[in-house]
Design goal:
Length: 272
């Protein structure tokens, strides 16, 4: 089992734990509001996904040898910093992401595709505000559990229209592949509506809302993980998702990469 893995070494931005044999938890703790940067995604989040999947697959092989179907269960929870109730993620560090012209193509989009095909159920435990890229991260999870906002206000919002940032093609692909109809797409993307948890539940963005603070949100996420984790036991969870979101993933991969020597060098230095 994984005890505690803090990434990246020397400047931890997240912690991966395995509190139960079949459960992995990624806790984001990048500053106060968990901005999704190149360093967080490339050097912490993606390696944490690899570590969790590797451990799950080891357990699957052991369970198969022992004829233990229960041993093949698994689920992953992603939660904002546990010692606060204000932020799940406030989205991208927009100014720094602009320094890498291929940020979406090389960093954010691969993360979204990875999550869309992850081989065990994924649950976003949204313990506070969930904005822009943070909302996209929650949407590529299989389930979303959120505080009801009764102890502290919490909003979900794609606010790019309000500060003049065009959407990458990948955002559009995830929105249309995951949610509702054109009216909801318009409300999210073109109006930049700030959803209360109650509104988001009614519109199908969330699966559950929970009265209470971060510990209560995490407890509900663990309940969901326990309920659906067995569906990973036959090894087809990720394969079926690859088919469900086939068009979404293909569209994500169509985001145009800007290619010339200077841009490639600048992008590489931003990631290193």
């Amino acid at each position: 089992m994984i005890d505690t893995l803090s990434l990246p070494a020397g400047n931890p931005l997240l912690t991966l734990t395995q509190p139960k044999l079949h459960l992995w938890i990624i806790e984001l703790h990048h500053g106060q509001d968990n901005r999704l940067t190149q360093e967080l995604i490339n050097k912490a989040f993606m390696p944490a996904l690899d570590a969790a999947e590797r451990q799950w697959r080891i357990q699957v092989r052991t369970a198969q040898k022992n004829g233990d179907k229960e041993g093949s269960k698994g689920a992953l929870i992603i939660i904002g910093k546990r010692d606060q109730d204000k932020f799940f993620s406030n989205g991208l560090d927009f100014a720094n992401s602009l320094k890498d012209p291929n940020f979406f193509q090389h960093t954010f989009n691969p993360m979204m595709a990875r999550m869309l095909t992850f081989p065990i159920p994924t649950i976003a435990a949204i313990n506070g505000h969930c904005y822009a890229g943070g909302l996209m991260l929650s949407l590529v999870c299989d389930y979303r559990v959120m505080t009801d906002g009764s102890s502290r206000n919490a909003w979900l919002c794609m606010n790019e229209v309000h500060f003049g940032a065009p959407w990458p093609l990948s955002f559009t692909a995830v929105l249309t592949g995951k949610l509702g109809d054109h009216r909801l797409h318009r409300k999210i993307a073109l109006e930049g509506h700030k959803f209360t948890p109650q509104e988001a539940l009614q519109d199908g963005i969330l699966d559950h809302i929970v009265k209470g603070k971060t510990a209560d949100v995490l407890a509900k996420a663990e309940e969901v993980a326990e309920r659906v984790g067995g569906n990973a036991s036959m090894g087809v969870w990720g394969l079926i998702k690859s088919n469900i979101y086939f068009n979404t993933i293909k569209t994500i991969q169509k985001d145009i990469r800007l290619v010339n020597v200077a841009i490639d060098d600048a992008g590489a230095r931003a990631r290193l």
